[in-house]
Structures are given as structure tokens and as C-alpha cells.
Amino acid sequence: MTREEIEQMPAGREMDGLIAHMVIGAQTQVIESDWRYDSQHMERRPDRPWEHMPYYSTEIGAAWDVVERLDKTAQLCDVTRINGGATYLHHCEVWNTSGEPYHRATADTAPLAICRAALLATLPTTPVPPITPAPDVTRR
């Protein structure tokens, strides 16, 4: 996933799954819908049983769990509401206490800004080279 994809990703269950896996460190699973129920998004953390995956990107309480998780991993988080003209925007910055580069995101809602900044913080700081196929080493 690239920086641009994260910056354009809308709030929703796809982002929630990425947060659960990449930031929270939980296993995730989608139970497909059938005639009895709608599809369910589940997560399991090492210290908990399977449970419904929180709506990290749309609910502030769940997004605050992301902030607390970042705090536990020595990453600081600053969330600010800024005047964007007719509406307000929410801005989130995440940085490491060891002085590594910080990551920032702006969105219409605080949960979305928090999730985008947290996902940006999981990206490697140096570009990862593309995987090239191994050369054919069969004997002739």
C-alpha cells in the first residue's frame, strides 16, 4: 500500500481491517453473509477471544484505542481540529519518540485522520524495492 492510497482511502471496513492488522496487531476475519445475518468483521488479539472488529475509522471511541496503541509503542499522537473555511477539518500527526520522521493526515472527521496517520506510520521510511522473479536456473 502506498502513501497516496492511504491518503485517499475512505473510512470503512477495509480501513478498519488494516488498522486492526497493521496497528493493533490483531488477526482479522470476515464472515460472509448468508440468509441469517449480514457479513461480520471480526478481530482477535493475543489476549482476547474473537470479537466484532471496532469501527476504528468512523467512531471516535474506537479511534482513540488506536491513539492509545500508538502511545504503547512509543509513538506520540496529536489530534487537532482546524478551521477549513465553511467546515472544520481534523488533522493528526504521529511521530516516534526516538526522533524518526513523523506522519500527518487531514480528514473531515477525527477518526479518519487518526487512522490515516496511524497507517502512514506503518509504512517503511525507505522505499522497498520491487520483488523481481528469480532467474530460471534450470540446466540445459
Automatic annotation (TrEMBL):
Source organism, top-level taxon: Bacteria
Q: What is the lineage of its organism?
A: Bacteria, Pseudomonadati, Bacteroidota, Cytophagia, Cytophagales
Phage ABA sandwich domain residues: 18-119
Q: Which organism is it from?
A: Hymenobacter psychrophilus
Q: What is this protein called?
A: Phage ABA sandwich domain-containing protein
Return the InterPro entries for the record.
Bacillus_phage_prot-like, Phage_ABA_S
